Amino acid sequence: MEITLFKSGLNEALIIHEMQIKAFKHLLDKYQDYETSPANESVERIVERINQPFTDYYIIKSSNISIGAIRIVRKENNTYRVSPIFILPEYQGKGIAQKVFSIIVEIYNDVGVWELDSILQEQGNCYLYEKLGYQKTGELKRINDKMTIVFYEKRLI
Q1: Which residue, 107, 125, 130, 149, could crosslink 141 as a Cys pair with Cβ 3.0–4.6 Å?
Q2: Per-residue model confidence as pLDDT tens digits over 130-157
Q3: Which of 5, 25, 125 is nearest to 70 (CA)?
Q4: Residues β-bridged to residue 153
Q5: Which residues, listed in sequence order, are joined to residue 72 by a DSSP beta bridge?
Q6: What is the pLDDT of residues 53-96, one digit of tens each?
Q7: Which domains are delineated in the chain?
Q8: Alpha carbon separation from 53 to 13, 29, 30, 58, 135 (Å, rounded)
């Protein structure tokens, strides 16, 4: 399966928003994190992020079909953050996220540290990030009784 990334602008905000809701809806239902879930974000929030000069959004495509998205945030000192990455449910579990991470590493070749976070209770996601070389920072953020966010980083320097 060939995976490509399409750098997105304001014209793609609605597409990103629709995919984000589909990709995160089951997690919103499961954890009821209405304040933090990407499935509960407005399209205006995505527009805000696309307009940030330190943010790049990409639509993830397979055979020219939009199947997800990834946002890269440039921080200080060659530190970059992935927030969020998502794949539509029907395309999950096919190794797509791993391919996306390898493409991103090629595009952003000046990175010293990559950061991301995930839901601690979602062991499959945590396993993926750890397999890709991300390590837990030790920082945890309890969202509610059902859900805790775990923070990761991958040092390249």
Answers
A1: 149
A2: 999 999 999 999 999 999 999 999 999 7
A3: 5
A4: 115, 135
A5: 56, 82
A6: 999 999 999 999 999 999 999 999 999 999 999 999 999 999 99
A7: 3-155 (3.40.630.30)
A8: 16, 33, 34, 14, 28
Looking at residue 153, its amino acid is: E
State the Cα–Cα distance between residues 94 and 90, nearest whole angstrom: 9
- pTM (2 d.p.): 0.96
Q: Report pLDDT digits (tens) over 99-133.
A: 999 999 999 999 999 999 999 999 999 999 999 99
Distance CA 36, CA 146 (A): 13
